[in-house]
Amino acid sequence: xxxxxxxxxxxxxxxxxxxxxxxxxxxxxxxxxxxxxxxxxxxxxxxxxxxxxxxxxxxxxxxxxxxxxxxxxxxxxxxxxxxxxxxxxxxxxxxxxxxxxxxxxxxxxxxxxxxxxxxxxxxxxxxxxxxxxxxxxxxxxxxxxxxxxxxxxxxxxxxxxxxxxxxxxxxxxxxxxxxxxxxxxxxxxxxxxxxxxxxxxxxxxxxxxxxxxxxxxxxxxxxxxxxxxxxxxxxxxxxxxxxxxxxxxxxxxxxxxxxxxxxxxxxxxxxxxxxxxxxxxxxxxxxxxxxxxxxxxxxxxxxxxxxxxxxxxxxxxxxxxxxxxxxxxxxxxxxxxxxxxxxxxxxxxxxxxxxxxxxxxxxxxxxxxxxxxxxxxx
Length: 378
Known about the structure:
Elements: E1 2-4, H1 5-10, E2 19-24, H2 28-45, E3 52-57, H3 63-71, E4 80-85, H4 92-99, E5 109-114, H5 129-138, E6 140-143, H6 149-162, E7 166-167, H7 169-178, H8 184-198, E8 203-204, H9 206-212, H10 216-229, H11 233-245, H12 251-273, H13 284-287, H14 298-301, H15 306-318, H16 321-338, H17 348-361, H18 373-376
Parallel strand pairs: 1-6, 2-5, 2-6, 3-4, 4-5, 7-8
Helix pairs in contact: 4-5, 6-7, 7-9, 10-11, 10-12, 10-15, 11-17, 12-15, 12-16, 16-17
């Protein structure tokens, strides 16, 4: 039997015992939940006692040993569970042996193969197809893919309930969207911080999420800006592509955030040139050189977030005035082009990627005039 996580979760009568099981997929937090569900089921089968629970490692596994352990019960336990971690690393010949030997288990026994899904998609290993097929036919295969949309919202609301808090639906949606593409373990950490933040208050609101949970997009923009400042185009493009692909951020929105970051770097460079140091209050004549509005004034906007202040100082020191001037000019040119005021952008994603390369390389020529740039513009 093959199941997705939502179907597995909704079937309260589904039993692990008497079966071979495969837990695969990238969401390790959900796999832990499944193993805990199995532990509780095995405990009930053992009359409330802890089951005989054994963990093995895939890279050193011998098929004959696993088969023996799976069939061997104990006199002191009514249920037996054998968990194989990093099952995708079981040697190929041992996997082949297992694929020919998977059969019914004693009613109170279970063998669970758990894959790790570490590394990039290109380098990830998987269980051999023959072994997956036989487990799917005679046992239970559950895929724990990353949760999205309503499923992620429901999960995070349940986690808040474990802390005795009610997470408003709008707050759950905002939190899930901000953490989209990250592991549920990180999302759970944010719920714990929010529960602590609201104290005795029973409800977590959208305003609480805005106050406590840092937006991943802002964090990504800091990383992107840092790569630009250090002239690391490969790193900068990697961050940018992740924002476009995983966060689904609009190119125009990313452009606006990069421009804001560059304006803040300009302001910090002004402060540093006038002898200002972190932790000091600038003289009135220096303050007058900065924008007055709280949203545009760099010191006011990130006041209290000293790590961001340190980052901006380091970034400001990485830019010369001439390079920073060219960067702001390139941002303005790209903005006009994307708005159709200078030329027509055909591919906004490519246009902003070319801009990021230009910022890193400090190229004076506009990349729109290059051969590749003409593919981004009409």
